[in-house]
Design a protein that fits this description.
The chain is α/β, with parallel strands linked by helices. The chain has one domain (18-186): Glutaredoxin. 33% of the residues lie in helices and 20% in strands. The chain has 6 helices and 9 strands, in the order αββαββαβαβαβββα. It has helices spanning 2-15, 48-51, 79-95, 114-123, 137-143, 172-186, and strands spanning 18-19, 40-44, 55-58, 68-74, 100-106, 130-132, 148-149, 151-155, 161-166. The strands form 3 sheets. Strands 6-5-4-8-9 form a 5-stranded mixed sheet, covered by helices on one side. Helix 4 (114-123) links the parallel strand 5 and strand 6. The longest helix is centred in the middle third of the chain and has 17 residues, at 79-95. The radius of gyration is 17 Å and the shape is globular. The model is unreliable at 1-14, 21-26 and 186-201 (pLDDT under 50).
Length: 201
């Protein structure tokens, strides 16, 4: 009986969001669908070699190679976040040359093990930028005082959030793909002759 209960807890842990501690600073209101995504950065990129970027800045301004954004908040201690990484890698491969820019904002503390985190990212095939936000300042801009992980925000060409999803479950992949496909044609990102993001830019 105890084994069955333990398995149930593990299964639920992959679907339910992980709760981070309540913010002790700032009174930001949570960002929801339809609102403007707050600018942030520059943040140092943890996997600079793999992503070709040393820092990440988000300003919500559409430009060639960046017409919409998928911003994910994640931590290595969150089971759902780890399970979500292969999906983010797949979306980056599928839509990265069509105008979608994927970025993961990682919340691991500075006192953590960066080598272990890099090994985790490599094992999951992550090549999109993973930016470091150990003090969770960017996360608070998006979620306010109470936060949960994983959390993804799909931002459109107008800089507004089109979709917000927290937690990880089997349906989030289809939800994100459908939403991304609806956004990209509207920004003419389905044009095969349109240039993608350049490494090091």
């Amino acid at each position: 009986m105890r084994t069955a209960q333990a398995l149930l807890i593990v299964a639920l842990g992959t679907a339910l969001p992980c709760l981070a501690q309540e913010s002790r600073h700032g009174d930001e209101m949570p960002v929801t669908a339809g609102t403007k995504a707050p600018a942030f950065g520059p943040l140092p990129v943890i996997n600079a070699k793999e992503s070709g970027l040393s820092q990440w800045v988000f300003d919500g301004v559409s430009r060639p190679g960046a017409s919409c954004w998928l911003i994910s908040f994640s931590a290595s201690w969150c089971p759902g976040c780890v399970n979500e990484l292969p999906l983010l890698a797949e979306l980056h491969r599928q839509f990265g040359d069509k105008g979608l820019q994927v970025v993961t904002v990682n919340l691991d503390p500075e006192t953590g093990n960066p080598g272990r985190l890099l090994s985790l990212l490599k094992s999951k095939g992550i090549r999109h930028p993973v930016a470091s936000d150990p003090e969770q300042r960017v996360l608070r801009k998006f979620q306010g005082r109470m936060v949960s992980l994983p959390a993804v925000y799909l931002v459109g060409p107008d800089g507004r959030v089109k979709l917000f999803h927290e937690g990880y479950d089997s349906g989030v992949g289809r939800l994100l793909r459908n939403s991304i496909e609806r956004l990209l044609p509207a920004s003419q990102a389905d044009d095969p002759g349109r240039p993608g993001p350049k490494e090091g830019s």
